[in-house]
Amino acid sequence: MAIVYDTFQREAPQRLALLHADTPERVLAWRDGAPVSAAQFLAHVRQVAASLPSAGAAVNLCEDRYAFLVAFCAIVLRGQTNLLPSSRAPQAVDEVMAAHPGCYALGEQALDPAPTGYHRMPALSAMATLEEAVESWPQIPADQVVAIGYTSGSTGVPSANLKTWRSFHASNAGNLSMLRAAVGEGFTAVATVPPQHMYGMEMSVLLPLLGGVGVHAGRPFFPADVASTLADVPEPRVLVTTPVHLRALVESGIALPPLAAMVSATAPMPIELAQAAEARFDAPLLEVFGSTETCVFASRRTTREEDWALYPDVQLHPQPDGTQVDAPQLDVPRLLADIVSLSADGRAFRLRGRQADMLEIAGKRASLGDLTRRLLAIAGVEDGVVFQLDGGDALGVHRIAALAVAPGLDEHTILDTLRRAIDPVFLPRPLLKVAALPRNETGKLPRAALLELLARHHTHP
């Protein structure tokens, strides 16, 4: 019996391929130590699509990256939208589902407790038919909203960002061109970041779907897991990671299989860490710049370049309160809070900070980013962050707080050292030592989690 998908009922002037249409035999993913062809993947997508309920959207909660890929495409094939909360914590999932009445949640695991309307994927058993794959390579309406990504909440409440299939095709073209220039035509990606995050989506979901790239199904966390996962896939290998994961790899002293490149995002990459990683793993470190709102639009090799090179057809327009981004993946320009200065006739830029990070106290100026860097530069501080508290005084000045992970130091020593590096008006009060910062899966620090941790320490010193 033929399946009639919701997507085919939509009127659209243009359709774009669901999968990179090279050969059905090409390896799309590595799972359980074995390659999975594009044809086999498509058979699994059709199997899952046939089992999905009718709805407008689904929260994609798959942990396994291959299962996420299958679920993502099955949802798209049904004309539905993937909802990608900033966290898979029950509260974050419930908030997203409440904003989309009638949606359901989809995952490959048995969850307890499970979100309301949770739909567990069937075991992937469908077998590939090459003839069917060749004859009916799926095409998706270009204007179909295939995903809604939510920001991390590092600067406040997570916000929703709609992504069409056309916009994903456009953003993938920039990433693929950048990576091919660095490592060659074909490669296999191993990612430590979740596919629900937009950086993980671009580098470990869109690249294998639209770029002919292979990807490992896992999401290794500990250094030994990263090493064994890399060993499961063929060369050339690209490690997609974050500064937090990369620091753990460098400090572990572990040996990794040969890498063609490392890619990093989600937080600024300290130049010292970039240098250590390249020396340790004998591969270039490529840092990419973007946001959930814009997707990636620039890159640099951090050890060699301070300026970011824009992707083709991207234009930046500095504004008093940020930077307007005009890129092929955007229907309309988007304003980011980042302050930049342009160079190379507008084809490159240098990051100057964020308007929201700029501090002015007693006529003196500083940035939260620079204060955090100075905190992290103190010997013995393993992790830390400086941030502003809610509410201001009568003049609208907000107090500055800091959290530091420094097992061998006390708070007075940290403050005394910091006092020699910054103007006293910017000393954080309070500065508290904590066992660990509340980083999410990509290493970011949601503001709500920082304030909660600070309040908890004040209540239970």
UniProtKB/TrEMBL annotation:
Pfam families the UniProt entry points to: AMP-binding (PF00501)
Residue ranges constituting the AMP-dependent synthetase/ligase domain according to the UniProt record: 23-312
Ligase as UniProt keyword: yes
Family matches, as InterPro entries: AMP-bd_C_sf, AMP-dep_synth/lig_dom, ANL_N_sf, ATP-dep_AMP-bd_enzyme
Keywords from the named record: Ligase
PANTHER family the UniProt entry points to: LONG-CHAIN-FATTY-ACID--COA LIGASE (PTHR43767:SF8)
Protein name: Acyl-CoA synthetase
Organism of provenance: Frateuria flava
